[in-house]
Amino acid sequence: xxxxxxxxxxYALPEVQAMVALTLPSGSTAQxxxxxSGLTARYKEIDPAQxxxxxxxxxxxxxxxxxxxxxxxxxxxxxxDPKETRRRLAAKGKxxxxxx
Length: 100
Fold this sequence. Notes:
single chain, alpha+beta, Ubiquitin-like (UB roll), 5 strands
């Protein structure tokens, strides 16, 4: 008999962060967790067929099998090119928050 695992599914927008805790059967995938979370119903812009998913900040395939404690992150497209942002800040003598 397979044990259950506890995972979280997270989605962040600039104005709101949503996190859903789930208990799923062992062997569940990131895609299954997304669908079970209910976030695709709450946020219509999340297309389960096109969404990019991550675990611990690293992109994963929807078929990635989850482990106990994983946090599935629903990734959004970048709004700015990080390299261009760094160049612009460097020109002003600033950094992206890192201390030397």
